[in-house]
Amino acid sequence: MTFDVYAVQRDFPVLSQTVHGHPLVYLDNGASAQKPQIVIDTMARFMSDAYANVHRGVHTLSQKATEAFEGVRPIVQRFINAAHEDEIVFTRNTTESINLVAQSWGRANLKKGDEVLITALEHHANIVPWQMLRDALGIVLRVVPVTPEGDVRIEDVRAALSDKTKLVAVAHTSNVLGTVLPIKEIVQAAHDAGALALIDGAQGVCHDASDVQAWDADFFCFSGHKLYGPTGIGVLYGKRALLAEMPPYQGGGDMISSVSFEKTLYKDPPYRFEAGTPAIVEVLGLRAAIEYLSALGMQNIAAHEHALLTYATQKLAAIEGVRIVGQAKHKAAILSFVMDQAHPHDIGTILDRCGVAIRAGHHCAQPLMDHLGIVATARASFGLYNTIEDVDALVAAVTKVQEIFG
Ligand code: 7TS
Description:
- The protein is α/β, with parallel strands linked by helices.
- It folds into two domains: 134 residues, Aspartate Aminotransferase, domain 1 (Alpha-Beta Complex), CATH 3.90.1150; 256 residues, Aspartate Aminotransferase, domain 2 (3-Layer(aba) Sandwich), CATH 3.40.640.10.
- A seven-stranded mixed β-sheet has the order 4-10-9-8-7-5-6, sandwiched between helices.
- A hairpin with an 8-residue loop joins strand 13 and strand 14.
- Helix 4 crosses helix 11 and helix 12 packs parallel to helix 15.
């Protein structure tokens, strides 16, 4: 199948507007991606025709809603190539998925002196939950350095592992540098050292195919909203045997098999980890997003975005005073840069005036900024609907910044 980006663009109604008199060029996909019509329609249709709570009703609507809701688990399972559908836990987002692992698996399995290994390029979502455990349990948080180019070297991961390491928790793809980490090798190294591996897939899942079995990941997390689906829905994948041994994260309705004031019994995974009414409408929206992406083919999306990244890197680097931050060998379509004269916030503001939406700041990765010796970057993050013309608009707007400040 050929990938027709202009047809794809027409599937996203929000993209047809103008901003400050210019056609919108949306390059802030790393923060959140736009939604195709099919996601919007699926959610609206469910609410207008078929809405009810799940897992509790004897009435027709509730039974149908339960069937529709549970029908999404095998879709997610196939999308990330999990072995079993009960390995798919619905959460609010990547952040909640990581906190679930920290509070449930972490509290049950870690003790003072045990080590959790992360890298210097992690998002705060994969730093702070482990620091909270450090404060509560006395575990040690170790950090693998990132090279000046933005690579995480497998030798450095191996060097930081020891028999004290119990978990290696790393981003699949850096939200700032675009670096795609050598996930398979990192998981293998973790296992060789007797540790488990958690992959933060927030930025990886939208740019290329994910395969938790090929990686042999123990935990994998992602958010629906960066995957062209709705906000409020995320996924935690955990290997069946691990989830089976983990205590609940939150207590309440829907996660129990029986409750008395003396004793409560919990359901098996994944329900044990899904207390309260879930994000029913959003789960159906996530299904629509995954089906939309699968029909286009994640490999086709990856190839299209890679071409955009190559073109944009070349064009931006040629502008006087621009420095690309993150030159890793293997990158997803995320392009951070700084300019000699202009602060990233000024760049972001001027680009917005040209209709180009980017993010400027520390990108919730302050330790990485410290590590690189910078305070902020301007970041263009591409999605499947971006075009060569979008890159040209970015380059024209950055050239204008250079003219103003240079
Ligand atoms: N992990 C990574 C690698 C991320 O990039 C993000 C969000 C998260 C975790 C958290 O995801 P959430 O859905 O739970 O919030 N990253 C960004 C970003 O780069 N700009 O805005 C949010």
